[in-house]
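Q&A log
Question type: sequence-to-structure
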Amino acid sequence: MSSNLTFCAGEATVLAAEGQFTDAMPEILIGRTDGPVGQAFASMMAQSKGHTAMFAIRACNQMVRPATMLVPKVTLKDSANIDLFGGVVQSATADAVVDCLIEGIIPKDQANDLCIISLVWIDPRCAKDPNLDKKDMYRTNYEATKLAIQRALRNEPSIEELIANRHSIKHDMDDWS
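Response status: OK
Response body:
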């Protein structure tokens, strides 16, 4: 784990079950509340149209520690997407943070001195899909959030891995190189 928890970044992708649009791709910042991540976290408390941030809570009156702010990567335009964001995704994120504490991925003795910003993606097709599997959406967001936190705190991928894979790994969406 990184000994300097001033600014740690991580991301992960977990793919959906066959026929679902529930891929999860959180991008995580973890850092001290008295550092740049804490400053960004506090600044996010103001609402911005379409990108409303919210705390990760497990249930009413159960905000997780470290305090975690969820921010959608795209504008949420309808109540169906907002419900997914503030329901399934919020729950999965909150559970992942608590489990990271339980498993020692996040140091318990620093939980109140750290904060997390999690940028999350919800495929717009999810809200319109009559066969949406919310359990799969929970699974992908939970697993990806946990992995992104772990990667952030371990500085993964390493510089050596990035250099070694520079010419052998291509972007998943297309290959422009």
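Response note: The chain has a mean pLDDT of 92.
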